[in-house]
Amino acid sequence: MVLLGAVALFSCEGNYKNVKQLTQKDYQPIAIWSDVNLKYTDSGKVVTNLISPVVRDYSNRGFPYQEFPDGVEVRFWNDKGEKSTVTSDYAIRYDDTDLVDLRNNVRVITADSVELNADQLYWDQKNKWVFTDQPYRIKFKDGSFNEGAVGFDSNQDFTTFLSRRNEGVQIVDTENNDNGK
């Protein structure tokens, strides 16, 4: 009887290890790419260039995503050929929602010289909207700047910028004042 109990115990232990190994494989990426330099073209023109040391593809998950554990640099060119750049030390892009989560040393420099630095930034690609609930600093093309402690919401070209709580310097053009003062 003791021998039968010992055999049953060890066979259960072996099955548990096999199930655990199968489960662990499910959490592994379906693909890993190194030294990525992906260019997206439209009508023969490069419009986006994604550069990353490592990309892990988890499209085999219930909520698929790509992870950029060693950072990412994305360059965008508009219709006029002007370049904007986004960099961060870490990023995740979720397939189902088209949401990009950029983290650690996030820096955005737009074609018209807007410069944003943040700890974290979300980019909703579908709605062309960026936002954060973390501290940030943004310098606008006219030289004014804004430091926010709580976060902001903005369209992706920063022409509609809604800060939640901030301090900054705003430059006012007094020569074009309607009052004549």
Spell out the key features of this protein.
single chain, about 180 residues, mainly beta, lipopolysaccharide transport protein A fold, six-stranded antiparallel beta barrel, 14 strands, globular
Describe this structure in words.
This protein is mainly beta and 181 residues long. It has one domain: lipopolysaccharide transport protein A fold (Sandwich), CATH 2.60.450.10. Helices cover 14% and strands 50% of the residues. The protein is built from one helix and 14 strands, in the order αββββββββββββββ. The chain has a six-stranded antiparallel beta barrel. The longest helix has 25 residues. The N and C termini lie far apart (102 Å). The model has no long low-confidence stretch (mean pLDDT 82).
The CATH H-level superfamily is: Lipopolysaccharide (LPS) transport protein A like domain
Q: At the first level of CATH, what is the class?
A: Mainly Beta
Q: Within the CATH hierarchy, at the fold level, what is the topology?
A: lipopolysaccharide transport protein A fold
> What CATH architecture would you give?
Sandwich
- Mean pLDDT across residues: 82
Can you count the beta strands?
14
Tally of contiguous helical segments: 1
List low-confidence stretches.
none
Helical proportion? 10-25%
Largest β sheet strand count, sense and barrel closure: 6 strands, antiparallel, barrel
Cα-to-Cα separation, first versus last residue: 102 Å
Q: What is the strand content?
A: over 45%
